Amino acid sequence: MRQVPNGEKRVTDPDQKERLAQLEAKIEAAKLAQAPKPRVDEHYSAANLAWRMVIELVAGLGIGFGIGYGLDLLLGTIPIFLVLFTMLGLAAGIKTMLRSAKEIQEDQLAEQAERDERD
Q1: Which of 10, 51, 56, 64 could crosslink 85 through cysteines, CB 3.0-4.6 Å?
Q2: Residue 80 lies in a domain
Q3: What is the extent of the structural domain holding 80?
Q4: Could you tell me if 8 and 53 lie in one domain?
């Protein structure tokens, strides 16, 4: 090492420079090995899609049932609100299922169009 006018020490030995370059290359290789892999597009399986739709339907039914039961309990009525809101929950669940199916179908059509465009 040699002293420069401002007091810093610099590596001048060619062997030191070569070792430093090798060390930097090893560090870079280690960083690349530890880097996260790029995400692959998620493709949902049919089972995942079916479970998603079932959960949406059951959630709609459950919410409707809960609202109806709560109103019947508070108002002291016959289970008219229970039946009414359970049916509304069923309709909301089916609507959500259909919206999910449409979204999935649009994604699949877009992927198909992209593949056709590449070919």
Answers
A1: 64
A2: yes
A3: 46-118
A4: no
In sign, the C-alpha dihedral spanning 21, 27, 31, 34 is positive
pLDDT of residue 70: 95
Residue 6 lies in a domain: yes
Q: What is d(CA 69, CA 78) in angstroms, rounded to the nearest whole number?
A: 10
Question: Residue 16: which H helix or E strand, with range?
Answer: helix 14-34
Per residue in 43-67, pLDDT (tens digit) is 667 888 889 999 999 999 999 999 9
Q: What tens digit of pLDDT does each residue of 67-109 get?
A: 999 999 999 998 999 999 999 999 999 999 999 999 889 988 9
User: Do the domain assignments include residue 16?
Assistant: yes
Do 93 and 56 sit in the same domain of this protein?
yes
pTM for this entry: 0.57
